[in-house]
């Protein structure tokens, strides 16, 4: 699977910390990269569309569907 650098930033948070809500991912990437909420949510949605991330309710819980080794 081909992921862009921005998508890898989202995936890296999930690989490091496990399942997280979109809000938590946004907060983490806001601190690490300076992204705003809209940017983070857009990138998360791209990861979902590619099948790299699963979105579950409640609270827009994100779970990685591919291992880090598959993207390296």
Describe this protein's structure.
The protein is of the alpha+beta class. Helix content is 54%, strand content 14%. The protein has a 3-stranded antiparallel β-sheet with strand order 1-3-2. The chain is globular. It starts with a helix and ends in an 8-residue tail after the last strand.
Salient structural properties:
single chain, 72 residues, alpha+beta, 3 helices, 3 strands
Strand arrangement across the biggest beta sheet: 1-3-2
Helix run count: 3
Poorly predicted regions: none
The ordered H/E elements are HEHHEE
Mean pLDDT across residues: 96
Multimeric organization: single chain
Computed structural class:
alpha+beta
User: Taking Cα atoms only, what radius of gyration do you get, to the nearest Å?
Assistant: 11 Å
Query: How much strand content do the residues show?
Result: 5-15%
**In total, how many beta strands?**
3
Helix content: 40-55%
Largest β sheet strand count, sense and barrel closure: 3 strands, antiparallel
Shape: globular
C-alpha termini separation: 9 Å
């Amino acid at each position: 699977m081909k992921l862009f650098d921005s998508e890898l930033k989202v995936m890296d948070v999930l690989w490091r910390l496990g399942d997280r809500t979109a809000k938590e991912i946004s907060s983490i990437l806001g601190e690490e990269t300076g992204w705003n909420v809209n940017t983070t949510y857009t990138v998360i949605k791209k990861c979902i569309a590619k099948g790299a991330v699963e979105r579950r309710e409640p609270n827009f819980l994100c779970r990685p569907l591919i291992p880090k080794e598959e993207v390296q």
